[in-house]
Amino acid sequence: MVRGINHQDIFYDQEDYYQFINTLDRMQVRYDDEGHACGTNYTLYAYCLMPNHFHLLIREREDYLGMAVKRISSSYVYYYNHKYSRDGHLFKERFRSEPVNDMAYFTTLLRYIHQNPLKAGLVSDIRDYRYSSWNEYTGDVDPAFGVCNTDSVLSRMPLNELKEFVNDPLPDEVICLDNDNEQPRLRLSDDQVWEQIMKLTGTSDATGFQLLEREQQKIIIRKIRRLGASIRQLERLTGISRGVIQALA
Question: Tell me, what DSSP letter sits at residue 91?
Fold first, then answer.
């Protein structure tokens, strides 16, 4: 996540947003000394451009993360300063980042990133926001103009399930990376896990959960994992073994 210096806006009109999206696309490609494409600097899975900051869900390839963000930022700053007849810094000196070590947090971030415009009150429906990658996932953007690797997600989660998941508001207690919040992301507390299980099943203890049909357990475990519960926490609370939970999740 990168924010404008002093929280100033970094996008003023449609051209600015589309210039940045084009930059995200161009900077993914690595070139040799003769100008021939020879690799990939990074893989982009999701983005959302807000008026004064942007979010990227990105995987290092040839570039390490810092270099990838520097390439993207420097290219856009050159365009921005030229267009608005200014010089100097546009972004805060240091971006904020977190490693994504499992699919549960990956999908939580995918959801969080695309819900940003909704939470900010910019739109009433996620699909109405033009400056995020969500319409690449739904197919409303021609694949020829897409900049994200959507296949990695859609090969694991059918589009209908993904739509339902991304449009389901994240609970307030799930905290993802935020430039103004120095706290790391929070896991759900035990009480919050049981609150979610009770809401979905009416079950309030481990015995009741173990009596549920296996397919129902699978659905619940997947949902709770995406909200931030750990495998160890679910094993302890439900009495179901770690191996079974991993298989269900």
Answer: B
